[in-house]
Amino acid sequence: MEYVSLGVIKDSFGLDGTLKIFSTTTMSNKRYATGAKVFLVNPLNNEMSERIVVKFRRSAPFDFVKLEGIDNPEDAKALKGYEIHVIKDRNDLEEGTYFYSDLKGCEVVDDKGNVLGHVKEVEEFPAQLTLRVGRKGKPDFFVPFIKQFIKSVDVENKRILIEIIEGLL
To answer: What's the pTM?
Structure first.
């Protein structure tokens, strides 16, 4: 079974054990719907424990999530550094959207088939998502994840075709 990370627990919030999570998902409302199942992942040993969402609110870049069984600030603080995961389900995605983890490692090519590098990271900037592309012996470059630059994405074959404009590389 594959999982996708929703974020990292940074602290507790309030007196009821609510978790303050640095979010890495664009689908917080769906992921943290009341009754949703999430998994807490211990960063030291990767052990997982299942929890149920009780309530949620967002204040970017943080998600504030109350989970069953975490009922006080001490319990919440003990989870600092844990990741929150959900089961990866491609049916959750709208057409033309991707899991960040599916984009990482993709080969980035130009319209002539030249390999320009590989996606190291998907970064969120206020204007749009951006791919950080690593290349051997050269500095990384950034590609805005918008139609003007991204011509096709093939996550199955780990390949992204981009349009190169002057100054991109």
So the answer is: 0.69
CB atoms within 10 A of CB 155: 14
10-residue mean pLDDT series, the chain (169 residues): 92 96 89 96 96 95 96 96 92 78 93 94 83 94 92 94 83
Three-state SS at 79: coil
Residues facing 115 on adjacent strands: 109
At 6, the amino acid letter reads: L
Tokens in use for 6?
A: 């929703």
- What six digits make up the tokens of 104? 């990482």
CATH 2.40.30.60 intervals, the chain: 3-89
On whether the 3-89 domain is CATH 3.20.20.100, my answer is no
* Choices 3.40.190.10, 3.40.50.10860, 3.40.50.620, 2.30.30.240: CATH for 100-162: 2.30.30.240
| Count of Cβ atoms closer than 10 Å to residue 35 Cβ | 8
Q: Are residues 108 and 123 in contact, defined by beta-carbon separation less than 8 angstroms?
A: no
